[in-house]
């Protein structure tokens, strides 16, 4: 990269670290940033700084938030007796886009995956059990991704909650096994929510 200035080469290397961004994509992004106005470029850098400084996990459900609680947890109109368990905030966003679910969420921040060295203690399962113990939750909807790891995570949670007076359901398998919620279309997700069934 001797033909590039040090700043350009360094910026390209930083973009290459992002998921889905290779050398060519990083190069296009950097050259685009060089062409736009300072105001536009600095607006991007300012928004990244602001996001990193202000966004945290909701203290109740572990969704993304800019205060102690996320927008969903602060909404008193939501059904407080339903809790939908998802792996990541992006899965929550995918379900919200359907407009079919009006309960609350619990974000696990991952899934049990021994091959990746992730066990249940690294997820927010203890906090989930505590929420169910409060007695307010009547139905727990398992919306982990339909993969081996997602199903294993749901089974781990179900075993932890054995004996609790809570109905445990799972999304109907309108979602293809091995896929991710974030890539499912709205109709597929809506059908999965409406057709949920008892978790066994």
Overview features:
five-stranded mixed sheet, 200 residues, Helicase, Ruva Protein, domain 3, alpha/beta, elongated, two-stranded antiparallel sheet, 2 domains, Dna Topoisomerase Vi A Subunit, Chain: A, domain 2
Characterise the protein shown here.
The structure is a single chain. The protein is an alpha/beta fold and 200 residues long. It contains 8 helices and 7 strands, in the order αααββαβαβαβαβαβ. Strands 4-3-5-6-7 form a 5-stranded mixed sheet. Strands 1-2 form a two-stranded antiparallel sheet. Helix 5 links the parallel strand 3 and strand 4. Helix 1 crosses helix 2. The longest helix is centred in the first third of the chain and has 17 residues.
Number of domains: 2
What is the multimeric organization of the chains shown?
Answer: single chain
Measured between the Cα atoms of the first and last residue, the distance is 56 Å
Order of helices and strands: HHHEEHEHEHEHEHE
| Shape, principal axes of CA atoms | elongated
Portion in helices: 40-55%
Brief description of this entry?
The protein has 200 residues and is of the alpha/beta class. It has eight helices and seven strands; from the N terminus they run αααββαβαβαβαβαβ. It is 42% helix and 14% strand.
Walk me through the topology:
Blueprint: H1 6-16, H2 23-35, H3 38-54, E1 56-57, E2 64-65, H4 71-74, E3 79-86, H5 89-96, E4 103-107, H6 125-133, E5 139-142, H7 148-160, E6 167-170, H8 186-194, E7 197-198
Parallel strand pairs: 3-4, 3-5, 5-6
Antiparallel strand pairs: 1-2, 6-7
Helix pairs in contact: 1-2
